[in-house]
Amino acid sequence: MEADAPTAGEAMVDWDGARYAEVSGLQRMVAEESISGLALIGNERLLDVGCGDGFITMLLAERLPEGSVVGVDASHRMIDRALARVPFDMLRVQFHVDDVLALPFDHDFDIAVSFNALHWVHDQGEALRQIARSLVDGGRAVLQMVCATDRPSIEDVAMQVATDPQWAGSFEAFDAPYEHVEPARFGELATAAGFTVDDLTVKNLSWTFDSVEDFHAWFTVGSPDWTNRLPDSETDRFVAEVIERYQLTVGEPALFRFSQLRASLTRRAGH
């Protein structure tokens, strides 16, 4: 018998919000590009799923002077960092620790967004159902995440390294903490969850870090599912091996290649 899949809150470790803020230039670039094309009137009620340290959420709040924004994330330390960004008198912005698989909302939002968070959720069908339930009829969702393509992902490389004899003892019964969904499958899941798929695109992108050391720092912050299983004395060596092996697949030092699925969805009335 297979074990029940963990919820997002169980599967996702508590990311370090302060360190994430220091190295998240890549994530911010991708999200800023996405929100620049997001059509907003200015009075919408917006939900940011997997809001992280709140940087992008606050940018969205600036575009909603007569609206409101709620950011949710499974990481307590991320939410602590996000709350520190909110002026004490800005009541229209809230941040909460919440699991995307058990959102406490019911037809409360006009639009939902998520930027590079949902690929850390195994049950993406349930996540989509929860997001749909959070929206009013006709509400919109703009969701962006890493997806499956023919490009090898750094997470796949990390899983390969974890099976090496020198590391395998630390990763017994360790399942991949991510879900890189096939784009067509994501469209099917969205439709089943109560959405109309207005647009679904995949882009292959790349980012060159200033140095291999910067790449190392970025992956260290983004890989606690792996590194939390290791003694502190072994973390740097494991990350260095992942980076080195990944570079063999892309052919250049400090180069990171990734694929982005972007889905624009509308909640069907009465679903």
Give a brief rundown of this model.
This protein is 39% helix and 23% strand. The chain is α/β, with parallel strands linked by helices and 271 residues long. The protein has a seven-stranded mixed beta sheet with strand order 3-2-1-4-5-7-6, with helices on both faces.
Give the arrangement of secondary structure elements.
Elements: H1 8-11, H2 17-23, H3 25-36, E1 45-49, H4 55-62, E2 68-73, H5 76-83, E3 93-97, E4 109-115, H6 124-134, E5 135-146, H7 154-162, H8 165-168, H9 183-192, E6 195-208, H10 212-222, H11 224-227, H12 232-250, E7 255-267
Parallel strand pairs: 1-2, 1-4, 2-3, 4-5
Antiparallel strand pairs: 5-7, 6-7
Helix pairs in contact: 3-4, 6-9, 7-12, 10-12
What does this structure look like?
This protein is of the alpha/beta class and 271 residues long. Helices cover 39% and strands 23% of the residues. It is built from twelve helices and seven strands. The longest helix is centred in the C-terminal third of the chain and has 19 residues, at 232-250. The two termini are 33 Å apart.
